[in-house]
């Protein structure tokens, strides 16, 4: 790399997954260009990576129309603060990580200031509002997509696009072997292990954890000796989780900070939709995806979303390889029925594992965070 003044990169990540993606990307950038500086909006992982986080995004990590309306004041304040930071700091590059509508507005403002914009994780234009491709094309300098099929949507509109690979391919690495994890978590190998992944947002915990706990009770009655384990997201407070867990008669083993070690111990997992479902797929663990939204958000989604699936494993596969239980279907009984089928029907579970391997193959060999770092440095060094 040629000599230059230290470059300043501003990151905008509004949710836990974006915080993690930005952190991994910046860590790779530091390896390649040690004097690069990072500032912006995010969470703890970005701080640990060395980014100067000026706004903690944990208060605005919400999803759904109603939820966004409820937090509109906080979101608007965050946007104003980030716009002011852009104007005052004038970074050499703005990296918008997911959090689509917020970051679209921020990118629009950056464009007016003459700041280069790299958008990381494409809006789901293949699911709804494909016209957004042109809108994003007017306010960004490069779209970095994480699924190979996404590039065609941008190329068709002559919007600069680069497929960088999905960051989860590199990230999903258990720290220990499965047998060692069994010993560490107090699990036994002679009884099935059921995972509960109720999400990383407080709204998801409120909506799905009680249902999953009720389903677990039913499973325990049908599958003797079944063990239950829950990987606690760093964004969820102990007090909130304990409020729900203390109402359950079951022993639920809670593990902090080791989601992939927990996942690899499981014979079947109940999970919310989102990145977690893809991470489970990469580890080849059979699952059921369940999700509940506010009635208004769900109704609008039914009107606008064109894809038949919400689960990433099904979207990547292009077919329904994992059962999805959405809204009224996301009942404890339905969850228990599907989990019971996975745990007792070897042929059914085996076919699901085989299909999940095809999802892993579709996502390639990884290197997403390093590819993003290289792309960002390429943009920094290009006038």
From TrEMBL:
This protein's GO CC annotations: membrane
InterPro entries reported in the protein's UniProt record: Glyco_trans_19 (IPR003835)
Entry annotated with the keyword Lipid metabolism: yes
Superkingdom assignment: Bacteria
Enzymatic reactions: a lipid X + a UDP-2-N,3-O-bis[(3R)-3-hydroxyacyl]-alpha-D-glucosamine = a lipid A disaccharide + UDP + H(+)
GO biological process: lipid A biosynthetic process
Keyword Disulfide bond: no
Keywords, comma-separated and alphabetical: Glycosyltransferase, Lipid A biosynthesis, Lipid biosynthesis, Lipid metabolism, Transferase
EC identifiers of the protein: 2.4.1.182
GO MF annotation terms: lipid-A-disaccharide synthase activity; phospholipid binding
Pathway: Bacterial outer membrane biogenesis; LPS lipid A biosynthesis
SUPFAM superfamilies: UDP-Glycosyltransferase/glycogen phosphorylase
Annotated HAMAP family: LpxB
Role played: Condensation of UDP-2,3-diacylglucosamine and 2,3-diacylglucosamine-1-phosphate to form lipid A disaccharide, a precursor of lipid A, a phosphorylated glycolipid that anchors the lipopolysaccharide to the outer membrane of the cell.
Sequence similarity: Belongs to the LpxB family.
Protein name in UniProt: Lipid-A-disaccharide synthase
Organism this protein belongs to: Methylomicrobium album BG8
């Amino acid at each position: 790399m040629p000599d230059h003044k230290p470059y300043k990169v501003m990151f905008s990540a509004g949710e836990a997954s974006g915080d993690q993606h930005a952190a991994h990307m910046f860590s790779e950038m530091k390896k390649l260009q040690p004097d690069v500086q990072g500032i912006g909006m995010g969470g703890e992982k970005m701080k640990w990576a060395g980014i100067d986080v000026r706004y903690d995004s944990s208060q605005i990590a919400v999803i759904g129309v109603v939820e966004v309306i409820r937090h509109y004041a906080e979101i608007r304040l965050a946007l104003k603060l980030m716009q002011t930071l852009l104007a005052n700091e004038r970074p050499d590059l703005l990296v918008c990580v997911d959090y689509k509508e917020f970051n679209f507005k921020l990118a629009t403002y950056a464009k007016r200031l003459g700041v280069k914009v790299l958008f990381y994780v494409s809006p789901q234009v293949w699911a709804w509002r494909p016209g957004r491709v042109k809108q994003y094309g007017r306010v960004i300098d490069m779209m970095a997509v994480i699924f190979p099929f996404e590039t065609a949507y941008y190329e068709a509109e002559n919007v600069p696009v680069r497929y960088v690979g999905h960051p989860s391919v590199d990230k999903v690495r258990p720290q220990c072997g499965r047998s060692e994890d069994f010993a560490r978590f107090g699990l036994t190998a002679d009884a099935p292990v059921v995972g509960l992944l109720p999400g990383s947002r407080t709204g998801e915990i409120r909506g799905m954890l009680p249902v999953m706990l009720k389903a677990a009770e039913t499973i325990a009655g049908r599958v003797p000796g079944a063990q239950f384990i829950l990987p606690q997201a760093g964004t969820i407070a102990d007090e909130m989780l304990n409020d729900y867990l203390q109402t359950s008669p079951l022993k639920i083993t809670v593990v902090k900070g080791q989601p992939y070690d927990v996942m690899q111990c499981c014979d079947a997992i109940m999970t919310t939709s989102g990145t977690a479902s893809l991470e489970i797929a990469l580890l080849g663990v059979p699952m059921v995806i369940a999700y509940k939204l506010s009635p208004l958000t769900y109704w609008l989604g039914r009107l606008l979303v064109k894809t038949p699936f919400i689960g990433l494993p099904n979207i990547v596969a292009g077919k329904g390889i994992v059962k999805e239980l959405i809204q009224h279907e996301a009942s404890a009984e339905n969850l228990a029925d599907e989990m019971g089928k996975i745990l007792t029907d070897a042929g059914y579970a085996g076919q699901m594992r085989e299909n999940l391997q095809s999802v892993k193959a579709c996502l390639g060999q990884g290197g997403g965070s390093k590819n993003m770092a290289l792309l960002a440095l390429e943009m920094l060094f290009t006038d």
